[in-house]
Design goal:
By secondary structure, the chain is α/β, with parallel strands linked by helices. 37% of the residues lie in helices and 18% in strands. A hairpin with a 2-residue loop joins strand 1 and strand 2 (18-25).
Length: 289
């Protein structure tokens, strides 16, 4: 077993014939319960590292997985990275955890969490949606897609990748070390650095399909009964005031908080404030009966 302040235990879960790679931080003391962290599109489980360590130190058993097609998790043979498959994966992970976790999802992981709980629930002890709502802003979504499409041939150096990230997130201070990038990129035989996910993840649906996803997310939100926290970045271009208000109407009991210094990538932009708000919320959730 790993320790809360050190390296987590590596775990594997099978879902629909695909092996999902994950990390588990056991609780530093008697466990208060489990937390499952689901990352956004194009990210990896390592984006939750500091949050995982902090929550484990506070007495929570924490799990984080690479989504299918990302990082060390398996690639879909037929390129199916639909939200339905991601929901299947989340349900398979919860089965392995063996108890209802606090389900924390950012962006793609948040949409997965929302639909999983709304359609398959009760799965979770509580739900935390990180900069995601039923109707996302197309301008912000298009910006993310443009960034993910921007380097089909990879980068010559890690410095070039760092420059691209800085251009996408100009408000975020540049890291002093490039070591973190080594977890999000892989160096291929030609020496170039490529993002560590299947390019087929980028296959976008048509506008009618996106509208169906919105209706599906809205329907799922109406079914949410567990304690819920909506977290928005103060500089988010994904979650608008109108989108947040709609979610409050769909989930009337939901709490909301804004991380003023953060954009869409809240945990990466201001991890300390985010994790502090997250911990305060989950500490208030009742234990499952």
């Amino acid at each position: 077993m790993g320790t809360a302040s050190g390296s987590p235990q590596q775990v594997r879960v099978s879902s629909g014939g695909i092996e999902l790679a994950g990390d588990h931080w056991p609780a530093a003391s008697n466990s208060k319960g489990s937390v499952l962290l689901l990352h956004g599109g194009g990210q990896r489980r390592h984006s939750w590292r500091r949050t995982g360590e902090w929550l484990a130190e506070a007495g929570w058993s924490v799990w984080s997985f690479d989504a299918r097609g990302h990082g060390e998790s398996g690639r879909s043979p037929d390129g199916d990275y639909s939200i339905s498959k991601l929901v299947d994966d989340a349900a398979a992970i919860v089965d392995v955890i063996g108890q209802a976790p606090v389900l924390v999802g950012a962006s793609m992981g948040g949409m997965t969490s929302l639909i999983a709980e709304g359609e398959r629930g009760p799965l979770a002890r509580a739900l935390v949606l990180v900069d995601i709502v039923a109707r996302i802003e197309s301008e912000g979504s298009d910006k993310i897609q443009a960034f993910m499409h921007s380097a089909p041939n990879g980068f010559a150096t890690l410095e070039d990748a760092s420059d691209a990230i800085a251009a996408y997130n100009p408000h975020r201070p540049r890291p002093k070390s490039l070591d973190g990038l080594r977890k999000n990129l892989v160096q291929r035989e030609d020496g170039r650095w490529h993002w560590h996910w299947d390019p087929r993840v980028l296959q976008r649906g048509s506008e009618p399909e996106l509208e169906i996803r919105y209706e599906r997310a809205k329907s799922a939100a109406r079914n949410i009964t567990v304690p819920t926290l909506l977290v928005r970045g103060g500089h988010s271009d994904i979650v608008s005031d109108a989108g947040l208000q709609e979610m409050r109407e769909l989930i009337p009991h939901a709490q909301s908080v804004e991380v003023g210094s953060a954009g869409h990538m809240i945990a990466g932009d201001d991890n300390d404030v985010f994790t502090s708000e997250l911990l305060q919320f989950i500490e208030s959730t009742p234990r499952p009966q």
